[in-house]
Amino acid sequence: MAIDKTVLLSNDVETTSIWFNDLRDETGLKVWKEGMPILLDIYRKFNIKSTFFYTAYIAKLYPETVRMILADGHEVGSHGKSHTKENGFDIMPFDKQKRHLEYSKNTLEDISGQEVISFRSPAIRVSSLTARALIETGFRIDSSIASQRFDFFLSFGGMRKLNFLKTPRLPYRTKVNDIFSKGNSELIELPMSATLLPFIGSTMRIMPGITSIQQRLLHLESLMTSKPAVFVIHPNELIDETNEPRTIKRRSSNQIAYLLSDVIRAKLKSKNLGNSAVPLYEKLIQYYVDKGYVSHTMKSYADKLIAEGRV
Q1: How far is residue 283's CA from residue 212's CA, in Å, rounded to a whole number?
Q2: Whole-angstrom Cα distance, residue 185 to residue 174?
Q3: Collapsing DSSP states into helix, strand and coil, what is residue 11?
Q4: Torsions phi, psi for 175 (to 5 deg)
Q5: 31 Cβ partners below 8 Å, 6+ apart?
Q6: Is the per-residue pLDDT at 266 higher than 90?
Q7: What average pLDDT score do residues 205-215 get?
Q8: pLDDT tens digits, residue range 26-49?
């Protein structure tokens, strides 16, 4: 079988302020006016096709953040209704998951005029119920699973993410009643890349040297298995709010959870924000260009897998 060198550069678009560790409409405005143009310019420079996962909240607040990607051939995907911790898909009951998915899908389709079939859950929090909820609301692709990722102590829903340690690394059809397992449902899972550490913008900014090593390891895996490299970045990583006095919002009443998931996490994630992140991301993309990788949207890659009988 020919080696398939594919990179899926994906983007989660929301109103999260990394600097304040909180959701802010003001940050959403900067994402629209500053972060998104920078990101789109990078993709034009390297001729990248990508999927942007939007919360319905930012889409309704600033609909131009959705429309501005269409001319470049990028895909609109859903990132749920909102990014509040209370609306995590790992804790919402089935009917509420469906309502959130329907609302998000309808909102994004009304704004974009584009069918929305790809989903990534906020904070990659899912439950076994999520696969059926996605299927019943018309989604066909998910990218919420981070196979063999282990940074749970710094994120919400950490213990529930232990399921990531046993999930398949290659793209797979999920079970109807278990998004973490391979089955024969209509839902195709395109797992995010990880090597215990997540392959994401935060890691790239905090530990660029480690991410460079990680990227080479994932390249070797692609050569051996044709696994796509799936990277995640946020346009809010390309904006700078550090000129504003900082107060880190407390999101947990548990002292240990507050220390790990709020204070330490927020301080780590503020490294190399704004303009400093741009050359790091361009270097990461240049690696794939030099190695002859082809970029895809989630939808175009899933279509390719189906056409080749690989899922």
Answers
A1: 9
A2: 6
A3: strand
A4: -75, 150
A5: 13, 14, 15, 58, 62, 65, 235, 236, 239
A6: no
A7: 97
A8: 999 999 999 999 999 999 999 999
CA atoms of 310 and 4, how far apart (whole Å): 12
C-alpha to C-alpha distance for 144 and 190, rounded to whole angstroms: 8
Six-digit token string for 228: 């796509």
251 occurs within a structural domain:
yes
CATH of the domain at 176: 3.20.20.370
Residue 286, in any domain of the structure: yes
Distance CA 173, CA 131 (A): 10
* Percent of the chain residues past pLDDT 90, beyond the cut: 83
Dihedral (Cα; 72, 67, 78, 183), 10-degree rounding: -30
Residue 268 pLDDT grade (very low, low, confident, very high; cuts 50, 70, 90): confident
Query: Would residue 1 count as lying in a domain?
Result: no
Distance separating alpha carbons of residues 249 and 27, to the nearest angstrom: 15
Residue 291 lies in a domain: yes
Q: Angle at Cα 163 formed by Cα 158 and Cα 166, nearest 5°?
A: 140
Note the residue count of the chain: 311
Mind listing the pLDDT tens digit for each residue in 60-109?
Answer: 999 999 999 999 999 999 999 999 989 999 999 999 999 999 999 999 99
* Bigger pLDDT: 270 vs 31: 31
Domain that holds residue 124: 6-307
Report the number of distinct structural domains present in the chain. Answer: 1
DSSP string, 115-148: ---EE--GGG---TTHHHHHHHTT--EE---BTT
